[in-house]
Automatic annotation (TrEMBL):
Pfam families attached to this UniProt entry: S-Me-THD_C, S-Me-THD_N
Stretches assigned to the S-Me-THD-like C-terminal domain: 167-359
Residue ranges constituting the S-Me-THD N-terminal domain according to the UniProt record: 9-164
Naturally occurring in which organism (per UniProt): Sphingosinicella rhizophila
Gene3D superfamilies: CV3147-like, CV3147-like domain
Annotated protein name in UniProt: DUF917 domain-containing protein
Organism superkingdom: Bacteria
Amino acid sequence: MFLVDSIIDIQDMARGAVLLGTGGGGDPYVGELFVRAQIKLGNFPRIVASEDIDDDAFVLSIAAMGAPTVVIEHLVSDSTLLRLLARAEEHFGRRVDALISAEIGGANSMFPLALSAITGLPVLDADGIGRAVPHLEMTTFSINGCKATPAILMDDSGNEVIVQAVDDKTAEELCRVVTGAMGAMALGAFYPMSGRQAKEIAVQRTLTQTLDIGRAIRTAREQSRDIFASLIQVLEERDGRKAAILFDGKIVDVTHETRDGWHWGRATMRSLTDAGDEFTVDIQNEFTVARHNGRTAAIVPDLITILDRETGEPMTGEMLSYGQRVKVLGYAADAMLRLPNSLEVIGPRAFGIDEDFVSLEELVA
Protein backbone atom coordinates (compact mmCIF):
# COMPACT_ATOMS: atom_id res chain seq x y z
CA MET A 1 0.00 0.00 0.00
CA PHE A 2 1.18 3.52 -0.67
CA LEU A 3 -0.24 7.01 -0.50
CA VAL A 4 -0.05 9.38 -3.43
CA ASP A 5 1.12 12.31 -1.31
CA SER A 6 3.30 14.17 -3.82
CA ILE A 7 2.14 16.56 -6.52
CA ILE A 8 5.08 15.44 -8.64
CA ASP A 9 3.88 11.83 -8.36
CA ILE A 10 0.35 12.65 -9.51
CA GLN A 11 1.76 14.64 -12.43
CA ASP A 12 3.94 11.67 -13.37
CA MET A 13 0.95 9.33 -13.09
CA ALA A 14 -1.13 11.56 -15.35
CA ARG A 15 1.69 11.61 -17.92
CA GLY A 16 1.94 7.83 -17.82
CA ALA A 17 -1.85 7.55 -18.16
CA VAL A 18 -1.77 9.62 -21.35
CA LEU A 19 0.82 7.23 -22.81
CA LEU A 20 -1.19 4.14 -21.88
CA GLY A 21 -4.30 5.91 -23.16
CA THR A 22 -2.99 5.46 -26.71
CA GLY A 23 -4.48 8.77 -27.80
CA GLY A 24 -7.86 8.30 -26.09
CA GLY A 25 -9.38 7.92 -22.67
CA GLY A 26 -9.61 11.69 -22.29
CA ASP A 27 -6.88 14.03 -21.12
CA PRO A 28 -6.31 13.35 -17.39
CA TYR A 29 -5.26 16.97 -16.74
CA VAL A 30 -8.56 18.06 -15.16
CA GLY A 31 -8.59 14.99 -12.91
CA GLU A 32 -4.96 15.61 -12.06
CA LEU A 33 -5.80 19.17 -10.98
CA PHE A 34 -8.51 17.84 -8.66
CA VAL A 35 -6.18 15.29 -7.04
CA ARG A 36 -3.43 17.91 -6.72
CA ALA A 37 -5.84 20.17 -4.85
CA GLN A 38 -6.78 17.30 -2.53
CA ILE A 39 -3.12 16.54 -1.84
CA LYS A 40 -2.60 20.18 -0.82
CA LEU A 41 -5.49 19.74 1.62
CA GLY A 42 -3.85 16.61 3.06
CA ASN A 43 -6.24 14.16 1.37
CA PHE A 44 -4.16 11.43 -0.26
CA PRO A 45 -5.34 8.68 -2.64
CA ARG A 46 -4.52 5.23 -1.26
CA ILE A 47 -3.33 2.50 -3.63
CA VAL A 48 -3.24 -1.18 -2.66
CA ALA A 49 -2.21 -4.35 -4.46
CA SER A 50 -5.10 -6.62 -5.46
CA GLU A 51 -3.71 -9.47 -3.37
CA ASP A 52 -4.05 -7.31 -0.24
CA ILE A 53 -7.87 -7.29 -0.27
CA ASP A 54 -10.20 -10.08 0.81
CA ASP A 55 -11.70 -12.41 -1.78
CA ASP A 56 -15.20 -11.39 -0.70
CA ALA A 57 -14.49 -7.64 -0.82
CA PHE A 58 -16.89 -5.56 -2.92
CA VAL A 59 -15.00 -3.77 -5.70
CA LEU A 60 -16.50 -1.18 -8.05
CA SER A 61 -15.19 0.66 -11.08
CA ILE A 62 -15.69 4.43 -11.27
CA ALA A 63 -15.24 5.91 -14.73
CA ALA A 64 -16.28 8.71 -17.04
CA MET A 65 -18.04 7.89 -20.29
CA GLY A 66 -18.28 10.15 -23.31
CA ALA A 67 -16.40 11.85 -26.11
CA PRO A 68 -12.84 12.84 -25.06
CA THR A 69 -13.34 16.23 -26.71
CA VAL A 70 -16.18 16.87 -24.25
CA VAL A 71 -14.75 15.17 -21.14
CA ILE A 72 -11.79 17.59 -21.06
CA GLU A 73 -14.23 20.51 -20.69
CA HIS A 74 -15.70 19.19 -17.42
CA LEU A 75 -14.18 19.86 -14.03
CA VAL A 76 -14.27 17.00 -11.53
CA SER A 77 -17.14 17.43 -9.09
CA ASP A 78 -16.60 16.05 -5.60
CA SER A 79 -20.34 16.23 -4.94
CA THR A 80 -21.10 14.10 -8.02
CA LEU A 81 -18.43 11.56 -7.04
CA LEU A 82 -19.87 11.29 -3.53
CA ARG A 83 -23.45 11.07 -4.84
CA LEU A 84 -22.41 8.29 -7.20
CA LEU A 85 -20.74 6.31 -4.42
CA ALA A 86 -23.70 6.73 -2.07
CA ARG A 87 -26.17 5.74 -4.80
CA ALA A 88 -24.09 2.66 -5.67
CA GLU A 89 -23.95 1.50 -2.07
CA GLU A 90 -27.70 2.05 -1.75
CA HIS A 91 -28.41 0.14 -4.96
CA PHE A 92 -26.16 -2.84 -4.18
CA GLY A 93 -27.04 -2.87 -0.51
CA ARG A 94 -23.47 -3.03 0.75
CA ARG A 95 -20.44 -0.89 1.38
CA VAL A 96 -17.86 -0.51 -1.38
CA ASP A 97 -14.55 -1.87 -0.07
CA ALA A 98 -12.24 -0.82 -2.93
CA LEU A 99 -12.25 1.00 -6.25
CA ILE A 100 -10.72 -0.06 -9.54
CA SER A 101 -10.16 1.68 -12.87
CA ALA A 102 -12.09 0.32 -15.85
CA GLU A 103 -9.17 1.45 -18.01
CA ILE A 104 -5.83 2.86 -16.95
CA GLY A 105 -5.37 5.17 -19.94
CA GLY A 106 -6.30 8.83 -19.85
CA ALA A 107 -8.84 10.47 -17.57
CA ASN A 108 -10.30 7.24 -16.19
CA SER A 109 -7.10 6.58 -14.27
CA MET A 110 -7.83 9.75 -12.27
CA PHE A 111 -11.49 9.36 -11.22
CA PRO A 112 -10.92 6.47 -8.76
CA LEU A 113 -7.94 8.38 -7.31
CA ALA A 114 -10.12 11.47 -6.92
CA LEU A 115 -12.81 9.51 -5.06
CA SER A 116 -10.16 7.79 -2.94
CA ALA A 117 -8.73 11.16 -1.92
CA ILE A 118 -12.05 12.44 -0.59
CA THR A 119 -13.28 9.19 1.01
CA GLY A 120 -10.19 7.21 1.98
CA LEU A 121 -11.34 4.18 -0.02
CA PRO A 122 -8.40 2.22 -1.47
CA VAL A 123 -7.82 1.98 -5.22
CA LEU A 124 -6.52 -1.32 -6.56
CA ASP A 125 -3.23 -1.23 -8.47
CA ALA A 126 -4.99 -2.77 -11.46
CA ASP A 127 -7.51 -2.06 -14.19
CA GLY A 128 -9.64 -3.72 -16.84
CA ILE A 129 -7.51 -3.37 -19.96
CA GLY A 130 -3.98 -1.99 -19.36
CA ARG A 131 -4.67 0.83 -21.85
CA ALA A 132 -7.72 2.80 -23.02
CA VAL A 133 -10.49 1.50 -25.30
CA PRO A 134 -13.61 3.17 -26.75
CA HIS A 135 -16.25 0.54 -25.86
CA LEU A 136 -17.59 -0.61 -22.50
CA GLU A 137 -17.40 -4.31 -23.38
CA MET A 138 -13.72 -4.08 -24.33
CA THR A 139 -12.26 -5.10 -20.96
CA THR A 140 -10.74 -8.18 -19.43
CA PHE A 141 -13.56 -7.92 -16.89
CA SER A 142 -16.23 -8.37 -19.55
CA ILE A 143 -14.24 -10.93 -21.54
CA ASN A 144 -13.93 -13.09 -18.42
CA GLY A 145 -17.57 -12.96 -17.38
CA CYS A 146 -17.80 -9.97 -15.03
CA LYS A 147 -20.70 -7.89 -16.37
CA ALA A 148 -20.57 -4.11 -16.62
CA THR A 149 -24.13 -3.83 -15.34
CA PRO A 150 -25.99 -3.03 -13.18
CA ALA A 151 -24.38 0.35 -13.96
CA ILE A 152 -25.27 3.77 -12.59
CA LEU A 153 -24.77 6.86 -14.76
CA MET A 154 -24.91 10.41 -13.38
CA ASP A 155 -24.27 13.94 -14.56
CA ASP A 156 -23.46 17.07 -12.58
CA SER A 157 -27.04 18.33 -12.91
CA GLY A 158 -28.36 15.52 -10.73
CA ASN A 159 -29.75 13.25 -13.44
CA GLU A 160 -29.15 9.55 -12.95
CA VAL A 161 -29.95 6.38 -14.87
CA ILE A 162 -29.52 2.75 -13.79
CA VAL A 163 -28.74 0.44 -16.71
CA GLN A 164 -29.32 -3.32 -16.63
CA ALA A 165 -28.40 -5.04 -19.88
CA VAL A 166 -28.45 -8.62 -21.15
CA ASP A 167 -24.81 -8.34 -22.22
CA ASP A 168 -22.04 -5.76 -22.21
CA LYS A 169 -22.27 -4.94 -25.91
CA THR A 170 -25.88 -3.95 -25.33
CA ALA A 171 -24.81 -2.12 -22.19
CA GLU A 172 -22.36 -0.09 -24.31
CA GLU A 173 -25.14 0.88 -26.72
CA LEU A 174 -27.56 1.83 -23.95
CA CYS A 175 -24.99 3.76 -21.93
CA ARG A 176 -23.82 5.58 -25.05
CA VAL A 177 -27.38 6.82 -25.68
CA VAL A 178 -27.75 7.92 -22.06
CA THR A 179 -24.37 9.64 -22.14
CA GLY A 180 -25.37 11.49 -25.29
CA ALA A 181 -28.53 12.73 -23.57
CA MET A 182 -26.36 13.92 -20.67
CA GLY A 183 -24.29 16.10 -22.99
CA ALA A 184 -21.78 13.45 -24.13
CA MET A 185 -20.31 13.22 -20.63
CA ALA A 186 -21.42 11.08 -17.70
CA LEU A 187 -19.80 9.65 -14.60
CA GLY A 188 -20.57 6.02 -13.91
CA ALA A 189 -20.22 3.08 -11.57
CA PHE A 190 -19.59 -0.12 -13.55
CA TYR A 191 -18.43 -3.72 -13.17
CA PRO A 192 -19.45 -4.69 -9.62
CA MET A 193 -17.10 -7.53 -8.68
CA SER A 194 -15.56 -9.46 -5.82
CA GLY A 195 -12.00 -9.12 -4.59
CA ARG A 196 -11.30 -12.57 -5.98
CA GLN A 197 -12.45 -11.52 -9.45
CA ALA A 198 -10.25 -8.43 -9.29
CA LYS A 199 -7.26 -10.64 -8.56
CA GLU A 200 -8.00 -13.10 -11.35
CA ILE A 201 -9.24 -11.04 -14.30
CA ALA A 202 -7.77 -7.53 -13.95
CA VAL A 203 -4.53 -6.36 -15.54
CA GLN A 204 -2.28 -5.91 -12.51
CA ARG A 205 0.16 -3.20 -11.36
CA THR A 206 -1.02 -0.62 -13.87
CA LEU A 207 -1.34 2.39 -11.55
CA THR A 208 2.26 1.97 -10.48
CA GLN A 209 3.11 1.55 -14.16
CA THR A 210 1.71 5.02 -14.92
CA LEU A 211 4.00 6.39 -12.21
CA ASP A 212 7.04 4.55 -13.58
CA ILE A 213 6.36 5.77 -17.13
CA GLY A 214 5.78 9.38 -16.17
CA ARG A 215 8.80 9.45 -13.89
CA ALA A 216 11.05 7.94 -16.57
CA ILE A 217 10.10 10.66 -19.06
CA ARG A 218 10.46 13.48 -16.53
CA THR A 219 13.78 12.41 -15.01
CA ALA A 220 15.37 11.69 -18.39
CA ARG A 221 14.37 15.17 -19.53
CA GLU A 222 15.67 16.80 -16.32
CA GLN A 223 18.97 14.93 -16.58
CA SER A 224 19.38 15.54 -20.33
CA ARG A 225 19.36 11.80 -21.04
CA ASP A 226 17.78 10.12 -24.06
CA ILE A 227 14.09 10.27 -23.17
CA PHE A 228 12.98 7.56 -25.57
CA ALA A 229 15.74 5.10 -24.63
CA SER A 230 14.81 5.55 -20.96
CA LEU A 231 11.12 5.13 -21.72
CA ILE A 232 11.61 1.96 -23.76
CA GLN A 233 13.77 0.48 -21.01
CA VAL A 234 11.04 1.06 -18.40
CA LEU A 235 8.33 -0.35 -20.68
CA GLU A 236 10.27 -3.48 -21.60
CA GLU A 237 11.19 -4.20 -17.99
CA ARG A 238 7.50 -4.93 -17.36
CA ASP A 239 6.91 -8.60 -18.23
CA GLY A 240 9.36 -8.38 -21.12
CA ARG A 241 6.80 -6.72 -23.39
CA LYS A 242 8.22 -5.27 -26.61
CA ALA A 243 8.42 -1.49 -27.12
CA ALA A 244 9.85 0.31 -30.16
CA ILE A 245 9.91 3.68 -31.90
CA LEU A 246 7.96 3.17 -35.13
CA PHE A 247 8.43 6.57 -36.78
CA ASP A 248 10.13 9.94 -36.35
CA GLY A 249 8.73 12.86 -38.29
CA LYS A 250 6.29 15.76 -38.61
CA ILE A 251 2.49 15.85 -38.79
CA VAL A 252 1.52 17.11 -42.25
CA ASP A 253 -2.23 16.50 -42.03
CA VAL A 254 -4.72 15.62 -39.29
CA THR A 255 -8.50 15.27 -39.28
CA HIS A 256 -10.79 15.39 -36.25
CA GLU A 257 -14.50 14.61 -36.02
CA THR A 258 -16.78 14.00 -33.04
CA ARG A 259 -19.40 11.54 -34.25
CA ASP A 260 -21.74 9.14 -32.40
CA GLY A 261 -20.05 10.05 -29.11
CA TRP A 262 -16.56 9.17 -30.37
CA HIS A 263 -13.57 11.07 -31.63
CA TRP A 264 -12.67 9.93 -35.16
CA GLY A 265 -9.68 11.02 -37.20
CA ARG A 266 -6.38 10.32 -38.88
CA ALA A 267 -2.90 11.78 -38.44
CA THR A 268 -0.54 11.72 -41.41
CA MET A 269 3.18 12.20 -40.82
CA ARG A 270 6.22 12.49 -43.05
CA SER A 271 9.89 11.93 -42.31
CA LEU A 272 12.02 14.99 -41.57
CA THR A 273 14.62 13.76 -44.05
CA ASP A 274 12.57 12.04 -46.77
CA ALA A 275 9.36 13.66 -48.06
CA GLY A 276 8.30 10.35 -49.62
CA ASP A 277 8.41 8.49 -46.30
CA GLU A 278 4.84 8.56 -44.89
CA PHE A 279 3.24 7.26 -41.73
CA THR A 280 -0.46 7.32 -40.75
CA VAL A 281 -2.30 6.66 -37.49
CA ASP A 282 -6.07 6.12 -37.43
CA ILE A 283 -8.17 7.30 -34.49
CA GLN A 284 -11.35 5.92 -32.95
CA ASN A 285 -11.02 7.65 -29.57
CA GLU A 286 -7.73 5.72 -29.34
CA PHE A 287 -5.02 5.15 -31.95
CA THR A 288 -6.12 1.90 -33.57
CA VAL A 289 -3.74 1.16 -36.45
CA ALA A 290 -0.44 2.64 -37.65
CA ARG A 291 0.82 2.21 -41.20
CA HIS A 292 4.25 2.96 -42.64
CA ASN A 293 4.03 3.66 -46.37
CA GLY A 294 0.83 1.62 -46.44
CA ARG A 295 2.22 -1.35 -44.50
CA THR A 296 0.80 -2.10 -41.04
CA ALA A 297 3.32 -1.14 -38.35
CA ALA A 298 1.17 -1.72 -35.24
CA ILE A 299 -2.47 -2.59 -34.62
CA VAL A 300 -4.91 -2.99 -31.71
CA PRO A 301 -4.86 -4.31 -29.08
CA ASP A 302 -1.13 -3.44 -29.06
CA LEU A 303 -0.59 0.14 -27.95
CA ILE A 304 0.23 3.01 -30.32
CA THR A 305 1.29 6.31 -28.76
CA ILE A 306 2.40 9.63 -30.27
CA LEU A 307 4.91 11.70 -28.30
CA ASP A 308 6.51 15.10 -28.75
CA ARG A 309 9.96 14.37 -30.20
CA GLU A 310 11.70 17.02 -28.05
CA THR A 311 10.04 16.69 -24.65
CA GLY A 312 8.77 13.10 -24.76
CA GLU A 313 5.30 14.24 -23.66
CA PRO A 314 2.64 11.76 -24.84
CA MET A 315 -0.33 13.26 -26.67
CA THR A 316 -4.02 12.51 -26.84
CA GLY A 317 -5.65 12.39 -30.26
CA GLU A 318 -7.30 15.78 -29.70
CA MET A 319 -3.89 17.40 -29.14
CA LEU A 320 -2.57 16.53 -32.59
CA SER A 321 -2.19 19.39 -35.05
CA TYR A 322 -0.37 20.29 -38.25
CA GLY A 323 3.36 20.88 -37.96
CA GLN A 324 4.03 19.04 -34.70
CA ARG A 325 7.28 17.07 -34.65
CA VAL A 326 6.63 13.71 -33.10
CA LYS A 327 7.75 10.15 -32.54
CA VAL A 328 5.36 7.20 -32.71
CA LEU A 329 5.81 4.45 -30.13
CA GLY A 330 4.52 0.90 -30.36
CA TYR A 331 4.11 -1.19 -27.18
CA ALA A 332 2.96 -4.80 -26.86
CA ALA A 333 -0.33 -5.27 -25.04
CA ASP A 334 -0.64 -7.34 -21.89
CA ALA A 335 -0.72 -11.06 -22.69
CA MET A 336 -4.37 -11.33 -21.61
CA LEU A 337 -5.38 -8.98 -24.42
CA ARG A 338 -3.78 -11.20 -27.07
CA LEU A 339 -5.67 -14.38 -26.21
CA PRO A 340 -8.08 -15.62 -28.93
CA ASN A 341 -11.20 -14.84 -26.87
CA SER A 342 -9.88 -11.34 -26.15
CA LEU A 343 -9.10 -10.65 -29.80
CA GLU A 344 -12.72 -11.39 -30.67
CA VAL A 345 -13.66 -8.39 -28.51
CA ILE A 346 -10.69 -6.00 -28.82
CA GLY A 347 -8.92 -7.19 -31.96
CA PRO A 348 -8.81 -5.18 -35.22
CA ARG A 349 -12.13 -6.46 -36.60
CA ALA A 350 -13.95 -5.22 -33.49
CA PHE A 351 -12.91 -1.73 -34.61
CA GLY A 352 -14.04 -2.26 -38.20
CA ILE A 353 -10.49 -2.88 -39.45
CA ASP A 354 -10.44 -5.67 -42.04
CA GLU A 355 -7.18 -7.24 -40.85
CA ASP A 356 -6.13 -9.98 -38.47
CA PHE A 357 -4.05 -9.07 -35.44
CA VAL A 358 -0.30 -9.31 -35.96
CA SER A 359 1.90 -8.73 -32.92
CA LEU A 360 4.30 -5.82 -32.64
CA GLU A 361 7.16 -8.29 -32.28
CA GLU A 362 6.37 -9.74 -35.72
CA LEU A 363 5.81 -6.36 -37.35
CA VAL A 364 9.09 -4.79 -36.21
CA ALA A 365 11.22 -7.90 -36.67
